Amino acid sequence: MDDRTFHLFADGPAPVAPYSHAVTTGDWVFVTGQIATGSDGDPIPESIEDQTHKVMANLKTVLAGCGVGLEHVVSVRIFLTRFEEEYGAMNAVYETYFPADKRPARTTVGVTALARGCRVEIDLIAKRSG
Predict the structure, then answer these.
(1) Rounded Cα–Cα distance for residues 107 and 41 (Å)
(2) Torsion angle of alpha carbons 20, 117, 119, 50, nearest 10°?
(3) Phi, psi of 124 (to 5 degrees)
């Protein structure tokens, strides 16, 4: 039996490609990589700090639509276009979203480009509490 549910939320960030905001299966929530775009075509913030805050807000919106929150996140992948220059500044923002003793597993990768000229993209996996 296929228990996958494909989620596309009207109040979520406007997709920039053909994808679902998230796919759930069983207790698992797989959230598509989010960039610093909005649901109404908001301009992309200038700084890496503001872009990271916007990405995290988008992730929280999608998670909430799936009935979970950041406290359910088990794994995160972060993609940065200016890795060496902005890794520290992105981390300074990112770490404010998770308690120091409950941070998800994480991978951060430097990439050459991201959609719409964004400098950070984050995707994640969460598990509903059982």
Answers:
(1) 29
(2) -90
(3) -160, 165
Q: Are strands 105-110 and 73-80 parallel, antiparallel or unpaired?
A: parallel
State pLDDT tens for residues 23-80: 999 999 999 999 999 876 678 999 999 999 999 999 999 999 999 999 999 999 999 9
Q: Which domains does the chain have, with CATH numbers?
A: 5-127 (3.30.1330.40)
The residues, any chain, with a CB within 8 Å of residue 112's CB and separated by 6 or more, are 81
Angle of the 83-94 helix axis to the 48-65 helix axis, nearest 10: 50
Q: How many CB atoms neighbour CB 89 within 10 A? A: 17
pTM for the full predicted model = 0.95
